[in-house]
Amino acid sequence: MHRRGVGAGAIAKKKLAEAKYKERGTVLAEDQIAQMSKQLETFKTHLEEFASKHKQEIRKNSQFRVQFQEMCATIGVDPLASGKGFWSEMLGVGDFYYELGVQIIEVCLALKHRNGGLITLDELHHRVLKGRGKFAQDVSQDDLVRAIKKLKAMGNGFGMIPVGGSYLVQSVPAELNMDHTVVLQLAEKKGYVTVSEIRDSLKWERERASHVLDHLLKEGLAWLDSQAVGEPQYWLPALFSELLSRDVTPEEANQMTP
Amino acid sequence: MEESVSKYASRGVDIKSLKAKVNSSSSVIYFCFIILLKIDRFVWTNGLLEMNETVVIQQRGVRVYDGEDSVFIRRYLVWIQQKFLKCLSQIIFFEEQTAGIGKSAKIVIHLHQALENKEPGPYQHSKYSYIELSFNEHVQIEFYRRLTEEMTQKRWENTPVSQPIPTGPKAGRTCAVGIVGIERKLEEKRKETDKNISEAFEDLSKLMEKAKEMVELSKSIANKIKDKQGDITEDETIRFKSYLLSMGIANPVTRETHGSGTQYHIQLAKQLGDMLQAPLEERGGMMALTEVYCLVNRARGMELLSPEDLVNACKMFGSLKLPLRLRVFDSGVMVVQLQSHSEEEMIASALDNVSDKGSLTAEEFAKLLGLSVLLAKERLLLAEKMGHLCRDDSVESLRFYPNLF
């Protein structure tokens, strides 16, 4: 890198440029960078003060976290962008969410063989909490959603599909377009769906319905029950636990076993 | 009224009518408190004033909270000041609670335990010993004033039937024994917590103001860099990027949060270069980025990397001449792979394996090589792309065969 800006001539030139800019009332970029450096130091101090008083709030209070995140988003700041950022270093927000990211990945990986890489946000929440143990901090679904958003940076794997008032979390790069999503939403109530149901509710032709269901089968997101009464049923393992936990209480289960 | 009745009826509350005088145009301001005491101490009245009762004030649209559980009656709150025992005598203490975020301002009224022989009311039992009333802003001030007035005057004590009961704000604090005392302490703790939270929010707002200034400044700088106003050295550019990194501000020009090229990422890339050699060898030279993320962060324990940190560090492998590469497949999957495991080698090995077995699915291939299914699939796809394999795509599976064409 050649040395710029040295020598008497260069100094004179710089002074001239500065004068010209000052005349026009603008500030040079390098002056502003110097200014920013100072302001950054001041800001750091403020942040430290804030952290010393309220760091616990962030850890303990999920409502506060939501508020914090929203405020950051409004002003155009991403506190989770880097572990090296002030927010992360001083408030500890980073570690909280990055660790959550690890836990989410692990849960999804562990269940992938069963549900093909699709899991309800509720089940994910439940399992993450279980994995964290009794004494860990509480995490809310909002926390999970934010952590997942961050995970997207690492490739196509992660996404969220709105279904039945909540979300399905996708952790594999399976291509799911609008048609697939709509069928997933339809299946949410009972955990399965049939071609006739699709034709009735969505008014699609048989071809289209079969095509979508085949894709889900191929991706491992749906299982085929060809022995079902009537016509074959396409079940979504991702939606299983929801239904099971909802329908059968332990007492009922005990009664049911012979 | 009807829809409210049915709504509450469905909740198992048998509602008769909560009557209220709807004469807001009346010249006299009525202050009626039909709802005596706590929810579980509320008793029904038929809305007609009894003999010694006068209407003090009435207000529409007041919410009543049982303890902190939200609204169940959102109607006319009518407060009848009764000369007989019931109502105001049951109030131990009341206070204002300032609004917080997501919460309206309220008046909290602490009450005695229910009387044994009370008549039936909306709830038979409730776990809280206080209720909260939420009003519109200016109404609250009025209500509070009236309540204070009534409490201090203690008009109900002027009747021959009244008992001496400690009520009013002054008596509140000295009641430190028994359940009342416990409730007081809980209340104080709650106030303390609330105060902390509201203070936290206040401080947060102030902090955000300052952060906003930083954002504005950085935008201005970025624009100047773009327009080349002034002489920026490379050093200064790097410094600027690191400032953006610290603040978590997206680079206004490139839209990346800081881009690669900061000192931090360079260091990180070198660390990763060392750290990932062995794991990559074990896994056939390739690991999904999510795997790397988990591995690295689990190892660190603290001061974890953000996903973006990892991606940006990996992007630097090439320019730093490290023996790793970040690679993005067509499907969007991102992996880190060892330079030494070249493309040709991988494809050749895939072809060998497939020819050997006649055909392979991604799962089978994964098992064979000890890879994850995801990566096994990517390799097969790659070989297919190069023309060495072809696929048989059925509902049962995606199977690859050597390409004999």
TrEMBL record, chain A:
InterPro entries: ESCRT-2_cplx_Snf8, Snf8/Vps36, WH-like_DNA-bd_sf, WH_DNA-bd_sf. The gene is snf8. Component of the endosomal sorting complex required for transport II (ESCRT-II). It comes from Carassius auratus (Goldfish). Belongs to the SNF8 family. PANTHER family: EAP30 SUBUNIT OF ELL COMPLEX, VACUOLAR-SORTING PROTEIN SNF8. GO terms for cellular component: ESCRT II complex. Its main location: cytoplasm. GO terms for biological process: protein transport to vacuole involved in ubiquitin-dependent protein catabolic process via the multivesicular body sorting pathway. Keywords: Coiled coil, Cytoplasm, Protein transport, Transport. Coiled coil: none annotated. This is Vacuolar-sorting protein SNF8. It is found in: Cytoplasm. Component of the endosomal sorting complex required for transport II (ESCRT-II), which is required for multivesicular body (MVB) formation and sorting of endosomal cargo proteins into MVBs.
TrEMBL record, chain B:
GO terms for molecular function: phosphatidylinositol-3-phosphate binding; ubiquitin binding. Gene3D superfamilies: 6.10.140.260, Pleckstrin-homology domain (PH domain)/Phosphotyrosine-binding domain (PTB), Winged helix-like DNA-binding domain superfamily/Winged helix DNA-binding domain. It is found in: Cytoplasm; Endosome. Keywords: Coiled coil, Cytoplasm, Endosome, Protein transport, Transport. It comes from the Eukaryota. GO terms for cellular component: ESCRT II complex; late endosome membrane. Component of the ESCRT-II complex (endosomal sorting complex required for transport II), which is required for multivesicular body (MVB) formation and sorting of endosomal cargo proteins into MVBs. Belongs to the VPS36 family. This is Vacuolar protein-sorting-associated protein 36. It comes from Carassius auratus. The gene is LOC113109472.
